[in-house]
Amino acid sequence: MSYQPGSKMKRRSAIVVFILLVMPIFIVMAMFGTSVTESARYQSMANDSQFGSTIVNARRGTIYDSSGKILAQSATVFNVTIDPKLLYDIIEDEDNGQAEFERQLDVISTVLSEELPNINYEDIPPIFEKYSAGHWANIAKQVEKPVIDVIMSRLEEAEVHTNIVYTEIDTKRYYPQNELAAAVIGFTNYEGDGAYGIEKYYNDYLKGVNGKIISAEDGLGNKMSYKNDKIYEAKDGNDIYLTIDMNLQYYAEKYLEEQVLTNKAQNRGCVIMMNCNTGEVLAMASTPGFDLNDRGSIYNPVDKAALDAITDPEEYSEQYAILREKQWKNKAITEIYYPGSVFKVVTGSAALEERVIDLHSTFNCTGSITVVAGVPPMHCWSSRVHGTQDFTTAMTNSCNPVFIQIGLRMGAEKFNEYFTAYGFTEKTGIDLPGEVQGLTLNTTNYGPVELASSAFGQTNKITPLQMITAYAAVVNGGYLVTPHVASKIIDSSGNIVKTFDTRIKRQVISEETSATMRQVLEDVVNAKNGSNAYIKGYAIGGKSGTSEKIDENRAQGREDLYVSSYCGFAPADDPEIICLVMVDEPMATDVNGGQIYYGSLIAAPAVASIFKDALPYLGYYPEYTAEELETMDITVPSVEGQIAATASETIKELGLKTEILGEGSTVITQVPPAGSMVPRGGKVIIYTEENIKEQFTTVPDIIGKTPSQANEILTNADLNLKLGDGASANNGSTAFRQNYSPGDIVPAGTIIEVYFIVKDEG
Ligand SMILES: [Zn+2]
Q1: Which of 8, 22, 237, 242 suits a disulfide with 206, CB 3.0-4.6 Å?
Q2: Ligand 1 centre distance from Cα of residue 377 (Å)
Q3: Under a CB-based contact definition with an 8 Å cutoff, are residues 708 and 721 in contact?
Q4: Who surrounds ion ligand 1 at CB < 5 A?
């Protein structure tokens, strides 16, 4: 049978073209436009709930990173809708109407149930029946275009009348980077409004203004002609460019996650990387995070296990809601902690600025200090007595009694003046929702004991963002800047709506004091045998912190809850980037069963690893000292195919050892392979025969050994040493982890990756 569309059908055809191809505003214009001719039809539309006042959705703006990578985007999807009346009209309008009605209903039910998830064949006929007098009923929401195309072509092929099944444009929010920067980007709620992160903070810019068509009514409330309709066009949302750089964000998350997982952090970790001069946030993450496209799952293994252990359904859903909320929160701005020794940069810089101390002042540590007679003495973190120290040495030792003395010398009034000036009594004002206020003591409540413990960071609770912002001021010339995440807002035509420039709140210390602090903190990284934030070829400044979670420990009757943190900056003499890593409640133990919780052991290596990737990316290349060059690893050359004797010479000339196995004349294979990095004096095994039995060796235990000891032991076992990422190359460091277990049997020449760490605590 050939189907001749009536005038109604032709008109609806026109509409479907508009719906699929043209802007939403035009869809509605078409619906109300000149094609509406029949008054009966008009009446039925006017009575329908979708008419009267019609919303035309605006497109939500896109969120980009600083280099233009898409972080959040609204894609066009389609709602599948049916016009039941159109199907029922067939029964009366056509010859053989009943049979044709049934045929088309069968096709529609088949196609929709086969192409759409969660829809069964038998669901469809009752919907048609229920709405048989009406012109629309929704079948599915937010269907992707390829699926729609299949549905439409199948219906067309089966000669189902046009527009019994039709589609309406809708939008869906996608996050192409999934979990990257999730807590910063945030997401929208069911209504399409921002619920978290940038999506929430800049919702008014992103969402745009929906259009509207208001139908005119006469004095009796009856609808007047469409010609009296008022049309307000939709205005699409603005696009936002962030200061976040996806590459830096990736480095930051990767190394933070490594430490959070290795050290079994119970309460997540966070990282902030900022341009210390402008306050632009380059990276910010909370780990474990979540996937923005699947944010309902619980990702923290600790939380997941606790949740799965709950059997009571009510308790489960209650706890699930709490944990989900927790994982969505941006730890860097919504949680407060004792900053511990990282805070010593604040106390130290204030004392230098006030000339209460200078670089030549000396202090004494006897292991503890009595602040007020009758009050128990306050102890240094170290069991060994630090003795006499100047300011730089005290900073390097992170000596508590010295900083207590410095705090007391300054006095409560001065201390508070700087505490306030550095921004600890106010929010930083970052452009993200949910920033909390620190929990700080009031000036009037400060006695000598509070002042003493405040001086080394164990009295006032602040956010990680407050800490890094104050620290940035210490090293950037003294300027407290407002951190920000947005860099510019652009409208849908590409015009700049708003730009975000550097906002300096105030100068806290002089350029001169700031320069002194940079030198002191660079010395801290390089001092003695170096620290775990030391990177060959770069000048890094930094300070570690380890704080006791006094309140949580007391509440839970335990003593093992700590926060490990580190804040470093580079290049040390003229810093551009500053990075704070914080790991909350690390619970891992070392080979002897002792808990590992010092910031210098957990957070410092993460900062070093991040800088090692971030600095070359930002255009800073390593400049090695003669001493560093001496200890540089050597790249193993390719000698395969060479005459064995020549190959052996080539390897020896590079400062490596070699051993030839087999009676052949040319090199068949080599271990380690070409391109591997091994320390000077490492060994390359050359095989000259195809079927020679590979030589094996046993991996020795090198935990606790210095790099040179480890190198010697491994070389003697015909193995090669590789320094693990973020490891300190200095002889003050000792092996902490190795990638092959002692006793493992491996081919001679194998590279054993060893992670070294300086046992500098604090
Ligand atoms: Zn001490």
Answers
A1: 237
A2: 13
A3: no
A4: 365, 380, 386, 399
Q: Is residue 249 part of a domain?
A: no
Q: What pLDDT is stored for residue 754 in this prediction? A: 84
CATH number assigned to the domain comprising residue 82:
3.90.1310
Phi/psi at 751 (5° precision):
-90, 125
d(CA 586, CA 253): 17
Q: Model confidence over 106-164: pLDDT tens digits?
A: 999 999 999 998 899 999 999 999 998 888 888 998 898 899 999 999 999 999 998 89
| 399 Cα–ligand 1 center, Å | 4
CA atoms within 13 A on the CB side of 91: 8
> pLDDT by residue (tens digit) across 399-422?
999 999 999 999 999 999 999 999
What pLDDT shows up at residue 730?
56
Retrieve residue 365's tokens: 């540590």
**Residue 443 falls within a domain, yes or no?**
yes
- In 3D space, the residue among 251, 264, 285 whose CA is nearest the CA of residue 725 turns out to be 251
Q: Tell me if 261 is assigned to some domain.
A: no
Distance 552 CA to ligand 1 centre (A): 26
What is the domain count for the chain?
3
**Cβ-contact 365, 380 below 8 angstroms:** yes
Is the full-model pTM beyond 0.90? no
Residues in the chain: 762
Please give the distance, rounded to the nearest whole angstrom, from the Cα atom of residue 609 to the centre of ligand 1: 29
The sign of the dihedral angle between the CA atoms of 39, 41, 44, 45 is: negative
> Ligand 1 centroid vs 66 CA: distance in angstroms?
44
Percentage above 90 pLDDT, the chain? 59
Q: Residue 726 is which amino acid? A: G
CA 398 to ligand 1 centroid distance, Å: 7
User: Pick the residue with more confidence: 24 or 746?
Assistant: 746
Report how far ligand 1's centroid is from the alpha carbon of 206 (Å).
53
Dist. CA 447 → ligand 1 center (Å): 22
State in Å: Cα 381 to ligand 1 middle: 7
241 alpha carbon – ligand 1 mean position (Å): 47
Distance (angstroms) between ligand 1 centre and the Cα of 400 equals 6
Domain match, 397 and 531 both: yes
pLDDT at position 226: 57
Two structure tokens written together for 363: 């202090």
Structure confidence by residue, pLDDT tens digits, 284-297: 999 999 999 999 99
Does residue 742 lie in a domain region? yes
Residue 410 C-alpha to ligand 1 middle, in angstroms? Answer: 19
Question: What is the distance in A from the centroid of ligand 1 to the CA of 760?
Answer: 13
Distance 636 CA to ligand 1 centre (A): 45
Measure 405 CA to ligand 1 centroid, in angstroms: 11
Q: How far, in Å, from the CA of 567 to the mean position of ligand 1?
A: 21
Structure tokens belonging to residue 680: 């000077």
The rounded Å distance from CA 369 to ligand 1 centre is 10
DSSP 542-604: EEEEEEE-HHHHHHHT-S--EEEEEEEEESTTS--EEEEEEEES---B-TTSPBP--HHHHHH
Same domain (yes/no): 228, 112? yes
Residue 389 Cα, ligand 1 centroid: separation in angstroms? Answer: 9
Residues of the domain holding 638: 630-758
Residues 639 and 585 occupy one common structural domain: no
Looking at residues 53-75, what average pLDDT do you find?
89
